Structure formats: structure tokens, C-alpha cells
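# nightly structure sweep
# worker-07 picked up a monomer target from the shared queue
# config: single-sequence mode, recycle default, output format = C-alpha cells
# input follows
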Amino acid sequence: MRLVVVSAGLSVPSSTRLLADRLTAATVAHVEAEVEVVELRDLATEIAQHFVTGFPPARLAAALDAVAAADGLIAVTPVFAASYSGLFKSFFDVIDKDALTGKPVLVGATGGTARHSLVTEHALRPLFTYLRALVLPTAVYAASEDWGEEGLASRIARAGGELARFMAPSARTPDVDTSAAIAPRSLHGAITTVDPAGEYGADVVPFAQRLAALRVD
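# output follows
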């Protein structure tokens, strides 16, 4: 398994990279994976060159190839102007349009205030949905006051577990056989009563007869 982590943090140290690292640890706790971290800060010049020339320099090409070949992706951005950063968006603007199709993606964001907590739903989720990625149900936003809080830790653990299950089919919850819970229908509109215990039998009752029984004289 290959897990690629894209961090768009700009400072050193970076709370964005810290969140990315914690999400990575929560994922590899459930699935064995080779981890590669892509620091977009180090690729800013190459991304700009790609926009101008149409060809990615070697380091950027390697990062794009790594994302395309990954079994799972963690993508974390700082919040700028109530959305993802320009550097973050630029990287995913130059990626191949089919590179993320069907790929499980765990998204995260960091910001100075909880007022931007919906950026994961209003900006990040639509971006990766447009790229046809499989965006996981749990997205993680970390405001400055969240660090060290139990709520953030539980969200990180839940999100990492979700990504692990989608990366490794064997780690997923076994499929539940729901056939006994679904009443099969005949070609003539009759409804079969499913009664595994045999308490009521398995009689086929025409729908019209059932409807008539519900009417009040």
C-alpha cells in the first residue's frame, strides 16, 4: 500500500504539517503503508513554471506521479480567505484530470478560528468531488484552540480509520447480508412475507388484498 500526504503549509514548523502527520499516524495504525509526504512549499516555483510552460519540472513530475499512483491520499491546507490556499489549489490544477478518479482522499484544513470550520465541506469536498475522487465522510478541521483537545483527537482517529478501510479492502467491515431483510416481489405485484423464524409462514399475499385489509369500513 502507498499513502501519499500533500501538505500546503508555508511556515516551519507548520500546524498544517502537524495535522497531516497526525492523520497519517492515525491511518497507518490500521493499515501497513509506505508513506510519502509532498511539501508544496518546496514545489511552489515548479508549479508556477508548469503553468507558464505546460511541462512539469522533474521534482513536480515526481510528486504528481506519486499522487496518481497512491492507494490513498491525505490532503491538508491552511485556510486563506475562507478557502484553501492558492498553492494548494494550483497543485491540484496541474494534476492529470484522471489521476484521482476513485481514489480515497482524506481532507483536512487548519485555521486560526473555528469560524472557518466548514471550509472542508464548502471548498475541499467539492474540489475533490469534481476530480472524481472518493472523499471520505470525515474531514478534519483544526483551529488554533483545538490543539490538545479531545475532540480533535477523536476526529483524527475516526478519519484515519476510514481511510485505512478504504485503502485496504481486507480491513473493511465485512459486508452484511441484507437479503433476509428485503421482501422479494413477484412479477405480478405480490409481496412475499420474509419470516426467517417461521413464526408466520411464508405466504404470498396479493398487494390488492393487503390494501383492502387496511381500509376502514
